[in-house]
Design brief:
It is a single chain. It contains 1 helix and 22 strands.
Length: about 350
């Protein structure tokens, strides 16, 4: 009987003793060591080592030392030990800078003027505190080229480029899309589109878009210049580790200048405009992503009535930051304007592109 009483505690203590001897980081006694890495503990008890990229819309973007880039729902996180200086925003809108420590529902910031403590439900965003302006910027450029000679001579060039600037409370994006095609010495495609959007985060899912600007030119759609300026709001409809879906809506003004118009028709007009947008990003696999961007514009009859710009992109990793993008573009104008000789442009333009893309 005495032997049995002595044996039982030893058997129960054996797994704990083994775990502590092995130094497994998911034990309760684990304390993240000093160094250059940040640590995140999940609600399963497991610890991840790596770098905190940012937190927006209740999702932490974390570069794991072993698993690579991860998107972790804030509700799945127990503790965070940050390394370095971070910039945080809370519901009161005032930014805070300092060393980061999340313990359960408490957020503790070691700032230069003392230690501050907030509740987790007050948190809106976290970013690395940028010491240099260039640290706030990311971007990508995508190129496509098709050259053929012989019975048919074709030279087609396409470019897509975009940059993004992030701060704890704002996001600014600027992108450009262009395409030129010469076939047998004749230009059959020449279109250019540029967009600028500024977002200010007012909540975990809702954000305000104080200004959005778009410029468009397509001479084969009889559009010399079309400029749209609007303001509105955005909302994160879906926000999971693999799926991100944002919606935007706004109102503003539109300027349209046609290359030429039929006799008696007006040109160079300003009209009111309503806009609606959808941005869907899906991580299909660790090496393949899908993105669907839809921008719709509602105009007066003489300005086109309705337009949309849809870009569907399937992106696969090649080497390092180099990707292969398969891009389908669909532009539509519901009521295109006749030119001075009475020709009416087609409502729809379609394009399929194979591009090499580089992220920086």
């Amino acid at each position: 009987m005495l032997y049995r009483n002595l044996l039982l505690p030893l058997v129960l203590a054996l797994p704990i003793t083994t775990a502590l001897a092995a130094g497994e980081p998911w034990t309760e006694d684990f304390v993240p060591p000093p160094g250059d890495y940040s640590w995140v503990q999940l609600d399963t008890g497991e610890w991840l080592k790596g770098e905190i990229i940012a937190l927006y819309d209740e999702t932490l973007v974390f570069d794991s030392d072993h698993f690579g880039d991860l998107q972790i729902d804030l509700d799945d996180i127990l503790h965070v030990y940050g390394r370095g200086v971070f910039a945080l925003t809370f519901r009161d809108g005032k930014p805070v800078r300092g060393e980061l420590n999340i313990r359960g529902q408490s957020i503790i910031i070691a700032a230069t003027d003392g230690t501050l403590e907030f509740r987790r439900e007050e948190l809106i965003s976290i970013t690395q505190a940028a010491e240099r302006e260039r640290d706030r910027w990311t971007g990508a450029v995508s190129l496509g080229l098709d050259v053929r000679e012989g019975n048919t001579e074709i030279s087609e060039f396409s470019i897509a480029a975009g940059v993004l600037r992030r701060t704890p409370s704002t996001r600014m994006s600027l992108d450009y899309l262009g395409n030129i095609n010469d076939t047998d010495g004749e230009r059959i495609s020449d279109s250019h589109r540029a967009n600028l959007a500024v977002d200010r985060f007012t909540g975990r899912r809702l954000y305000w878009r104080p200004i959005s600007l778009q410029w468009y030119r397509d001479e084969f759609q009889n559009i010399a210049h079309q400029a749209t300026a609007d303001t509105g709001i955005g909302y994160h409809l879906v926000d999971t580790p693999r799926v991100d879906w944002e919606l935007q809506a706004g109102v503003g003004a539109n300027y349209l200048e046609n290359l030429s118009v039929a006799p008696g028709e007006t040109n160079n007009e300003w009209t009111p405009v309503g806009t609606f947008g959808s941005d869907l990003e899906v991580e299909l696999t660790s090496w393949m992503d899908y993105e669907l961007e839809i921008n719709m514009t509602f105009l007066e009859e003489q300005a086109g009535k309705y337009q949309h710009h849809i870009v569907s992109t399937l992106s696969t990793d090649l080497v390092g930051d180099l990707d292969l993008d398969i891009v389908f573009i669909w532009n539509r104008t519901e009521n295109p304007q006749r030119d001075e000789i009475g020709e009416l442009p087609q409502q729809d333009d379609y394009r399929l592109q194979f591009n090499l893309a580089y992220d920086f």
